[in-house]
Design a protein that fits this description.
Elements (H helix, E strand, L loop, with lengths): L1 H20 L5 H10 L5 H27 L9 E13 L7 E14 L4 E8 L5 E12 L2 E9 L20 H6 L13 E14 L2 E11 L15 E8 L5 E9 L1 E2 L13 E14 L2 E12 L2 E15 L2 E11 L9 E11 L4 E12 L9 E9 L1
Antiparallel strand pairs: 1-2, 1-17, 2-3, 3-4, 4-5, 5-6, 6-7, 7-8, 8-9, 9-11, 10-11, 11-12, 12-13, 13-14, 14-15, 15-16, 16-17
Length: 383
Amino acid sequence: MKQFYLRKTFFVLILLFAAIISKAQSNDELLNLLIKKNLLTQQEADSLRSDLALKEQQKRDKDKENQHNISIGSRALQISGLVQARYQGFAQSGVNDAFDVHRARLDAKGNITDQWSYEVYAEFAGSVKLLEAYTTYKFADFLKFQAGQFKVPIGYESLVGDSQLDFIDRSQVVEALAGRSKDVIGNQVGRDLGIQVSGSFARINDRYLFDYTFGVFNGAGYNATTDNNNHKDLAARLCIHPIKGLDLGGSLYEGEDIPTATTKVPNPVTQARNRYGFDGRYVTGPFSVTAEYLHGTDASVHRDGWYAQAGYFVLPQVQLVAKYDTYDPTKTVTTDRSTIYNGGVNFVFNKWTKLAVDYLYKHEETTTQIKNNVIEAQLQIAF
């Protein structure tokens, strides 16, 4: 029996080598040759023919299913979505309390083959917007190639799915420096057009030690019909998982952009838009803690901020959360830093439905404080 497996292994190596140097020679011809050389018996060759035929038939069946039997929930087409209905109560005078639809998303994705996959993700709240549209080719876990419109790998919180956030809103520094609502290029919901390679390697038991991502982007944001300058932006992220439950990450971004709001930076012409940051997250049982720092340079303006947050499930369906969130939009100005103390509770009814209630106490480095605290409640359904 051992000799059979040695011969089988030897045969597979020969077959792989032969496939590279000569595609014209069939598997059957190789089997006959190996029998003639007394490297395989007829019985062993028949067994291998049977294995190859079975795998080939399975591949044909899978391809046929993908091409002619696509249905919702199948491997080739999976439909999911997200609805978040929100209420905001503002302490600031002149700002009306209001209900709104924070997000209404529809996501279509699937695998055409074992290697090729795609995703199309759209927003319907407010106005219809295409958020993501890309295709991915997976060579192996350590190498995936992606092209289209998708999230730029900057920081941790910007990459977390909207339905998976511990708070209703993202942190100030993420909104300002990761292509979101307060960025100099306008609200690009953290996305851009480009290509990237990514993967995981150095497997230890049930996890990989390293994850990496490197991308090249237009830098003009999502749904842009053309780039607004000839420069291409670069983004890279590396994440390390030294022990189970602990994630340590670093991000770097180098780019040039034309700001959409000329009051945010001097000279409304192409200028530097660079970012770097570090983040960490640890989860053990019902407890989680997360911290992130981001620094940005827009032309000659330096900005930075950080947040630290913790969450604890006091009951299987009730999570208490707290966050310290601070951001300085101009490092040379000493009176414009904003700090938010955020406390909340999440009622997780099931894996699809969650009610989040947050209270934001805001403090600005000004001589006269603005009474602008906010209470928010959001009911979320993901499907």
